[in-house]
Design brief:
Largest sheet: 14 strands, mixed
Order of helices and strands: EHEHEEEHEEHEEEEEHEEH
CATH class: Alpha Beta
Oligomer: single chain
Strand content: 25-35%
Bound molecules: flavin-adenine dinucleotide
Distance between the termini: 22 Å
Mean pLDDT: 96
CATH architecture: 3-Layer(bba) Sandwich
Shape: globular
Helix content: 25-40%
Radius of gyration: 19 Å
Structural class: alpha/beta
Number of domains: 1
Length: 312
């Protein structure tokens, strides 16, 4: 089958790779790639965050976790490593995504050592992973902005345009959630451990180590639809640094600040377009594109394989 994938962020590239593995002939069209995408800004650790629907996220996340763990073991150039993840939550209730991974209760490796949920968390380095994925593909990326999905060539067209889907599909449910990160030299941070402090729902804090640097975050601020990407805020940066100091997280010198817009929807849109049977949507992964990419791509591949498909 000939499939055109629109979008070259993590969702588009993983979808393209999965479809090529299933024997499809894939073409990719994207307005931007690598550092022009939201995917380039992500932490990016396996962690179901600001994404839905809960009844589908677990299976997508579990499948993606297995795939990332395999890449970590077999393809060091992909920039994936398996860390020990901790989530500090406001209550002792199991995380809503606990069916996707084994979690145990343990003291978090931060000052005060509050009890946290501990789990194996693959972490992706977008600057390594996105070019690695693109280089693995037989398809090359055609740089172009798509304005009409139904006009694209192929037996199937897969829409992986992230926030771009808001205008492309007139999707009012898709909104930008601002995130900001600060990248530091590693300093005294344990490069094998990631920590998310979710105790204050309005002010998430996280530490995501990479091979040669540490990402501190973050924030989750809803912006008006169509808002431009804001420059990094000094006030948010100061709050992140204060959270790090309070928890005893001691990175080295600061390197840079970055912002990104998470493509949030109450539920990832994954399914056939009701008006165009050839078009399959796969967008709206919020704060969890790296956490769900492979599971969602497998569902797209299953839809491609079906001869009779149901509109969503
Ligand atoms: C600060 C921050 C931290 C994050 N941390 C994590 C994390 O730790 N773990 C995690 O799993 N997720 C994380 N995320 C979320 C993750 O980054 C997103 O869910 C993911 O990047 C979305 O990927 P995407 O491919 O859908 O979108 P994008 O990466 O934005 O890619 C969209 C693609 O579509 C193209 N496009 C758009 N419109 C058109 C058009 N009309 N025609 C042609 N091409 C078009 C774009 O050019 C681009 O190639 C984080 C996000 C932010 C901002």
């Amino acid at each position: 089958m000939r499939v055109t994938v629109v979008g070259a962020g993590v969702i588009g590239l993983v979808t393209a790779r999965t479809l090529e593995e299933r024997g499809h002939e894939v073409a990719i069209v994207a307005a931007g790639q690598d550092q022009e995408t939201t995917s380039d800004v992500a932490g990016a650790v396996w962690f179901p965050y600001r994404v839905g629907p809960p009844e589908r996220v677990g299976a997508w996340a579990a499948s993606t976790r297995r795939w990332l763990a395999r890449l970590a073991a077999e393809s060091p150039d992909a920039g994936v490593d398996v860390l020990t993840g901790y989530e500090i939550t406001p209550t002792a209730d199991l995380p809503w995504w606990a069916d996707a991974v084994d979690v145990t209760r343990a003291p978090a490796p931060v000052t005060g050592a509050p009890l946290a949920w501990r789990f194996e968390a693959p972490r992706v380095e977008p600057r390594l992973f996105l070019p690695w994925l693109a280089a693995q593909l037989r398809a090359r990326i055609e740089r172009r902005t798509v304005t009409d999905l139904a006009a694209e060539v192929g037996d199937v067209v897969v829409n992986c345009t992230g926030l771009g889907a808001r205008t492309l599909c007139a999707d009012a449910e898709l909104v930008p959630l601002l995130g900001q990160i600060a990248i530091y030299e590693p300093g005294a941070v344990d490069l094998g451990v990631s920590v998310t402090d979710d105790r204050d729902p309005d002010q998430v804090f996280y530490v995501i180590p990479r091979r040669g640097e540490v990402v501190l975050g973050g924030c989750t601020i809803p912006l008006p639809p169509g808002a431009a990407l804001p420059a990094p805020s000094a006030a948010i940066d100061a709050r992140i640094a204060a959270d790090a100091a309070r928890l005893g997280v001691r990175p080295g010198a600061p390197r840079t600040l970055r912002t990104g817009l998470r493509p949030f929807r109450p539920a990832v849109r994954l399914g056939r377009d009701p008006g165009h049977a050839r078009v399959i949507h796969n967008y709206g992964h919020g704060g969890a594109g790296f956490t769900l990419a492979r599971g969602c791509a497998e569902d797209v591949a299953a839809l491609c394989a079906q001869s009779l498909m149901v509109p969503v």
